[in-house]
Amino acid sequence: MKPILTRRQSLLLGASALSLFCCCPPGRAEPHHYDLKPRKLTDGVWVTRGSDEAINERNGGAIANVAILDSKEGAILIDTGPSRRFGEALMALAKELTGKPVVRVYLTHFHPDHMFGNQAFDPATLAATQGTIDGMKEYGNAFSDSMYRAAGDWMRGTELVLPKSVVNSEPEDFGGRRLRPIAMRGHTPSDLALFDEKTGILFAGDLVFLDRAPTTPHADIERWRISLANISAIPNAMIVPGHGPAESGSRGTTQTSQWLEAIASIIGDAFDRGLDISEAMALPLPDWTESIALARYEYERSVMHLYPQLEASRWPRIDER
């Protein structure tokens, strides 16, 4: 039977999940225009790199990578960014790069830095797993509130828009650009990776982070590590992570798995030793994490995310005594 959370545990878990996007103090706002700078990975494939920061009023929430692919039928996007304004800038960029309208938009998961740009696109072009759509329904309004607090006026006019198409395991072919969806879980209960059969590029979403500490508000650490092992077994020419640089090789999957193993061990040991949350947050991290952006910041938030899970799974249920 699934453990029953106490009211305190439920409130803490909800608060820590929302804190993913509104813990950082707001910075001074820049002019409200997203200057998207696409990097060409190969012919017909571009990525706009997200900032290696937490969401704030300087970056307008643009911290996630977004991909643009060209096809004979039109532009294909992977994720839409954090706001209506970002989505509009992304649509304009996609049309500029490809000379065609947007025909498909895939969402890799339900976190707000990846899906609040939906509003700029025809909902009929938006596609996601059913789990992602369910997550958007469950958390969308709360995410909207936290994004407005964290990113400020960048979010003006942004509303939640749900996809009309449900992604299954069947590949989609857009006039020679064949994309294979790969449903996984771990970062959230429903994550989507996409494999471009034309180029061999694997778009991993937030299952893979590189040189930026992973976020864990909805994470199942063990399931995530299994998904990373599965990703590693897929032959590819390059991996595009949800956050961090796109590159060939296994550095992204290895580093993400190593991070998850490290924080699970440190936090689990702290819990077993009876340390409170503030004591667990103060524990040292391995030396290798010094080169990882936001390592201390995300570790402390992971303590907030994972402690309630440990309480729910390891503490005895008072209703079974």
Keywords:
about 325 residues, alpha/beta, Metallo-beta-lactamase, Chain A, seven-stranded mixed beta sheet, 8 helices
Verbal overview:
With 321 residues, this protein is an alpha/beta fold. The chain has a domain at 27-248: Ribonuclease Z/Hydroxyacylglutathione hydrolase-like (Metallo-beta-lactamase, Chain A), CATH 3.60.15. Helix content is 36%, strand content 18%. It has eight helices and twelve strands. It has helices at 7-22, 84-98, 112-115, 130-151, 221-232, 251-272, 277-281, 295-314, and strands spanning 38-42, 45-48, 66-69, 75-78, 102-106, 126-128, 165-166, 172-173, 178-184, 191-196, 201-209, 238-243. A seven-stranded mixed sheet has the order 1-2-3-4-5-6-7. Strands 8-9-10-11-12 form a five-stranded mixed sheet. α1 packs across α4 (130-151), α1 runs antiparallel to α8 (295-314) and α6 packs across α8. It is globular and about 60 Å long. It starts with 6 loop residues before the first helix and ends in a 7-residue tail after the last helix. InterPro entries: Metallo-B-lactamas, NDM-1-like, RibonucZ/Hydroxyglut_hydro, SoxH-rel_PQQ_1. This is Beta-lactamase. Pfam families: Lactamase_B (PF00753). One of its GO terms (biological process) is antibiotic catabolic process. Residues 1-29 form the signal peptide.
Short note summarizing the structure:
With 321 residues, the chain is of the alpha/beta class. One of its GO terms (biological process) is antibiotic catabolic process.
